[in-house]
Write a structure and sequence with these properties.
Blueprint lengths: L2 E6 L11 E4 L5 E8 L3 E6 L5 E10 L7 E6 L7 E6 L9 E3 L3 E7 L4 H4 L3 E10 L26 E7 L9 H21 L14 E7 L10 E7 L15 H10 L2 H4 L4 E2 L5 H32 L3 H6 L7 H14 L3 H9 L5
Length: about 350
Amino acid sequence: MLVLLVILLFGVTATLQDPQVIEVQDKQEHELSVSTLNSREYLIKLPHSFKLIIEVENVDLQSIYGDYLLIKRGPDMDEEGTGIALTEKGLPEGKIVISSNIIYIKLFIGESEEGKSKIREFKLKYTAYGTTSLTTTEAPTSTSTWPSPGANDKSHYKAHLYGLRDVDYEIEENVENLRTAIGKMAAEYCKDQAMPVLEPIGKNNVLIADLIRCPYYWPDSEKCVTVNFAVPVVMKPNYEGYQLLEMHLEVMWKRYEKYLTEFKLKNYIKPDMDAEMVYWDLTIIVLVVLLILVLLVIALVMISKPGWLFKLFGRVNRPGDRVNIIEHEERDSCVPNESEFDKFKANAVLI
């Protein structure tokens, strides 16, 4: 068995197409058993602040054809994060714990026709785990029911929040503080917009669909989470249409950040990665152009004024220069000067 623990930056090869969605609303143990000839995708969804504990009981794949079973943070392969990929028969050691509201599971079967003639299998058990009770959302304080959005209405807004780690929201108090802050934001927004609200707006109106960590490559991402939420508001009978829509929630989120600061939270500005890449590309281009210009100037000067570098920096001795100088000095010292030669002739004895 080959088990690969990978830091996944998928998103270049696969997209999520009609995965089977499994919603978990209890802490009981569940089983997912698959026997198929075709690739399959699954999404396991949990309420906010919960983890999923997975125990793989059986895997029968053919790595020679490119088969693999991928288990990671969702909602798809584009989501960054640590996951596990199984490519052969056998089981991983221990249980897999994934801290996310959405878990993505993909069984990929290779393209070989010969390989596809054999059934692939896997079987796993999974259990939701968290410190709070598994409930969907609190009911309204009155007998009214929450309004439902229309077919074309966008009721949820994804905001980026800074201040706490994703694991910190496993504590119920932190989740309730966030819902309280969003409820106050919605109440003031509706008041400022003079919206005909039938019932008071508070944290009970705040429905959090999921809450996951921001991509790891964002600055200070360890304390950044992406929260996907809706705030349905009960309007007076003569008002038609669903509120609050995504566009209203976006304005509300940016305008009333003061309620987040009460709990030491704040709006996290998503980095513009495209703009950053353009900046670095332009910087590199400018540096390359400057280097080319400098080289051209040096080449032109060397053509018009040969030897100017030697005049500027002085003559640089070659490695053998010092040896030649020493040898020349030694030869000169062996030849007597004129006065010494005259003395020699005066005192010479003819033989």
